[in-house]
């Protein structure tokens, strides 16, 4: 399981948590433990893939650093909310509903865009001429900074905000956030596709490292044995994924990622609608020794 998710991490530039967390939950591991433990696996698989992209000089360190600043702040807020939801017994429901909402919305948007791009390419229609530095409403915001590697001159406000959202969701839902980070960098900030994956992985690496520390010290729901087992496969799989990702076109990568996101979201929706086999769940209380 760790190897398969690590492969997808290197292939799409995602942390892989959005897939691994549901798989662990579907396997019977409590959601609280699944979320907290997956952050450690995301760190391992992302680190492995980042090495590959670093050697290719496909990372914008300045952009990734600004995203990281927002990500660490978002992670801290996420741990606080995670602790509150766990204390009142609503964590499981919130995780499931959040996965259905976010994965369904983002997966649907990515699917529509990627299909349109593939149709335009097959019909011979030239792609829309939009340069990396061109923006819509983002371009009018203050506090602009130049990111030379990505050929951007944009406000740091949306960049920090994006990092904070990814860090918050990563901590609460156990996701690296790459399935949102990658399309946001491409469509919102107009970062070149060749730079997006490496930059996304770099930000995910350090944001999830912070989330792991926060969970270990705050919620105490990290299963280190499970994490180490997942890491072994994740690190190896990420290397193969990073190599194969260079052989696929951008529209193909986006289409495959959209289908994956929708598939996981659909599974959560089905589980919410079906009558549960067990009417009661086993909750892990803070401080309880199991």
From TrEMBL:
InterPro entries assigned: TM_pro_TauE-like (IPR002781), TSUP/Inactive_protease-like (IPR051598)
UniProt KW keywords: Cell membrane, Membrane, Transmembrane, Transmembrane helix
Main subcellular localisation: membrane
Its membrane topology: Multi-pass membrane protein
Coiled-coil portions: none
One Pfam family cited in the UniProt record for this chain: TauE
Family of the protein in this entry: Belongs to the 4-toluene sulfonate uptake permease (TSUP) (TC 2.A.102) family.
Protein name, UniProt field: Probable membrane transporter protein
């Amino acid at each position: 399981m760790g190897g398969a998710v690590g492969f997808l991490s290197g292939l799409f530039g995602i942390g892989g948590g959005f897939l691994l967390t549901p798989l662990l939950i579907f396997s019977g591991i409590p959601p609280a433990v699944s979320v907290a433990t997956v952050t450690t696996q995301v760190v391992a698989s992302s680190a492995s893939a980042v090495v590959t992209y670093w050697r290719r000089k496909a990372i914008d360190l300045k952009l990734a650093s600004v995203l990281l600043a927002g990500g660490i702040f978002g992670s801290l807020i996420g741990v606080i909310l995670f602790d509150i939801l766990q204390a009142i017994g609503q964590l499981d429901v919130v995780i499931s509903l959040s996965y259905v909402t976010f994965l369904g919305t983002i997966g649907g948007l990515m699917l529509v865009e990627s299909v349109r791009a593939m149709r335009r390419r097959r019909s011979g229609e030239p792609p829309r001429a939009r340069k990396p530095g061109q923006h819509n409403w983002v371009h009018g915001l203050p506090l602009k900074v130049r990111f030379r590697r990505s050929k951007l001159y944009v406000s740091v406000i949306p960049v920090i905000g994006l990092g904070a959202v990814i860090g918050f969701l990563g901590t609460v839902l156990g996701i690296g956030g790459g399935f949102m980070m990658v399309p946001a960098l491409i469509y919102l900030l107009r970062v070149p596709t060749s730079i997006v994956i490496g930059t996304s992985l770099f930000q995910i690496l350090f944001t999830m490292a912070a989330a792991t520390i926060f969970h270990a010290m705050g919620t105490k729901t990290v299963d280190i044995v499970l994490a180490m087992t997942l890491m072994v496969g994740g690190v190896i799989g990420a290397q193969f994924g990073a190599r194969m990702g260079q052989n696929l076109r951008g529209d193909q990568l986006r289409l495959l990622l959209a289908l994956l996101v929708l598939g996981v979201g659909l599974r959560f929706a089905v589980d919410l609608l079906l009558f549960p086999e067990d009417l009661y769940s086993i909750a892990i209380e803070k401080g309880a020794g199991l």
